[in-house]
Amino acid sequence: MYVAQPIEWTDAGVVMLDQRRLPAEEIRYTYTDYREVAKAIREMVIRGAPAIGVAAAMGYALGVLHSPAKSVDELRAELPVIREALAQTRPTAVDLFWALERMSSKFAALDAARASLAAIRAEMVAEAHRVHLEKKATDEAIGKFGAEFMPSEGLVMTQCNAGALATAGIGTALGVIRVAFAMGKKLHVLVPETRPYLQGARLTAWELMKGGIPLTLITDNMVGHFLKTGNVKAIVTGADRVAANGDTANKIGTYQIAVLARENNVPFYIAAPISTFDLTIASGEDIPIEQRSAEEVTHIQGVRIAPDVPAAHPAFDVTPARYITGIVTERGVARGPYTESLRDLAAPQPALSTAG
Ligand code: MRU
User: Fold this and answer.
1) Which one of 74, 160, 254, 303 is least enclosed by Cβ atoms within 10 Å?
2) b/e string for 135-160 if b means 16 or more Cβ within 10 A?
3) Which of 3, 16, 22, 250 is the pocket-test mutation for ligand 1 (most atoms within 8 Å of CB)?
4) For atom 10 of ligand 1, which residue has the closest CA?
5) pLDDT category, 194, cuts 50, 70, 90?
């Protein structure tokens, strides 16, 4: 089945597929400077929480690889600048900060072991590779655990794009749908277009079409109608940050889907890696919500659709934990009360379990 590659490490640099141009054009850029990677994350060349994490890890590795430092001391002094440039891109998806922390910890371990500058450069690139490979394995495991909750046939719904484009693996929410479909479940996916950035219409519809999975595109204001009348059997979306109590930030519009799901007795699942948990914050009230430009609301693909009036664009909303049927991770499924189940899943474990 076709799986998009939003980002790859190559000898020439970090190659990214420009997701702003999909589905009209498949354009790739090669970046050799971490500042270009930061700009690409901010401007949504790459998007989706886990994919942003992979991009941040690769950006960090590029910064180390091409640093003008002539000694480990000089490199150590430069790292906060590299890290900050990548951190100041998008505030909501915690995978970004998880990846930066992981790269910083790797450097600290190499530094403590008195590794040479050349060895540090090579090892930091290898660590970024590992982050990417682990994301792929994580998606596969989430897919296996989550497929069980998909019906043997019928309609399912998702939101935004939590597919290969968003994770650099097979996807989280779309990974669940992909695995279920490959198992022989006869799914048909309802895809809300996800205004204003149209990740549903442009990206999820494209991925499902390329993967041969039947879909119907709907506008966001049709969600209530279809949940009431459409015999939707399950909903699965991704997440950008899961607080300790299970409150979950995801693409704007997810909250209203979850509330309408409860009203219509449709199970609502989140599919997300444990790196998306932020157990340092008690509830969703503390999740920072990215505010993007008004122009993304007043214009579609550069064409003005509204008069020159104020417009708001909170890019994410928070779904309270009580609306979430289960949170599917690479280590299994968390159920309410989430404070305990998330903590148990996140506890250090020897190896990634892919048993399903
Ligand atoms: O603004 P985006 O496109 O980065 O938002 C993406 C989402 O909200 C996804 O649902 C989320 O990151 C999960 S991706 C597996």
Assistant:
1) 303
2) bbebbbbbbbbbbebbbeeebbbbbb
3) 250
4) 238
5) very high
